[in-house]
Predict the structure.
Amino acid sequence: MMMVMAGWRRGAGWIAAPTMLLVLSACGHRYAVVQNKHGEDLMLLGHDPVAYFIQGKPARGNPAIKANFRDVTYYFASEEHRRMFVADPAKYEPQYGAFCSSGAAYGVKLGSDPHAWEIYKGRLFIFGDVVGQEFWKLEPDWNIERADMMWPETGAWGNRIQSFKRVIFRVPWHKKNGELMAAWEAKNPGKTIRYDPGRWWDNYFLKYPGWRAREGWDQPALGVPGEWDDDPSVYPKRPDKRAPVPKPS
């Protein structure tokens, strides 16, 4: 009987998985965006992509100074930065749609924190959190080679269906978190790195890319320039990270 039940569950799983993929196909976005009050798909939670190259640090953009590229919107800290971007947008745009560059190596589109970033060989890489960033730094070229190879597939699909697909059908070079953490600890003896990524169903299905950075999940909240949470202090400091998030007024 147990073998019959196990067979039924496997069969149900094969039926359920395509059904879920079909449902998810209408969900998500190809880029790590949030929608602003004008209905525009905004990149980098409103941070200036040129500032990483010019100032060497993240900078909030001005909603009045913006440009569109690949049907998404960017804010800039100055008109000069906007002109530089418009003249050569491919030079300044974040790689892999601003999704976590560590996950991109596995065809996954999860997480986006404009304060977790690297410029490497003239390209801007964004990460979902500090752990993904540190894992990526173990082998940048290894990650970039595979993420670039995967991007024609990864970039063509919305984040939810693509991530769901690659969690089920893993790439041959998939590395588990435990393996990556062991490699990181071997390279950084005596150090620790911790980050609560939140609940998996929030990251895969319920929340938008960048929600942890915007709302302050286990990190300082960033908010979004020009939106109801322009002042990120509207988000409560929540030690357990599960306090209610205020609704926009």
Q: What stands out?
A: The radius of gyration is 19 Å. Residues 21-31+95-230 form one domain. DSSP finds eleven helices and six strands in the chain.
